[in-house]
Write a structure and sequence with these properties.
Helices cover 27% and strands 27% of the residues. The protein is of the alpha/beta class and 164 residues long. Helix 3 links the parallel strand 6 and strand 7.
Amino acid sequence: MPWTSPLVEKYKIQYGSGLDAQTYLGQNYFNVDRSLIPDILRLLRDEEQFDYCVDITAAHYPKREKQFDVVWILYSFPRNQRMRVKTQIADGASIPSSVSIWPTANWLEREIYDMFGIQFDGHPDLKRILLPDGWKGFPLRKDYDILQQDKEWVQINLGIESGQ
């Protein structure tokens, strides 16, 4: 369902078709064009008091042209309000880092990189955070063959047969 509020109207006037506001089961979110991400996130922090980046996550939809959703879950302590900002990107495309806006985004973006392979432009140290450096592929992509990767990694790095 469409989300209507003074906050939504303010940003729709400013960004027009680059921003769409929806609500689902009481959860409010902005769908924004990838190019608007740094501006929208900074404005939400500075002007709207969304001072806490709760999480950043992604989802993979391999049949879509823009295969990935990247979602920021934000919270405002002064407002006692939560919202999400979502954008879509194509496989191989990058997205601006939000570490300069919320330093806690550092590890969250690294996890998305590690699990999905999404690159964050301007990230201070974008490298794997959960998996070993030599790991091939990105396990949370829906087209990833985890059993094959596990067998290869265990054989190469441990010199034994995998129990999978």
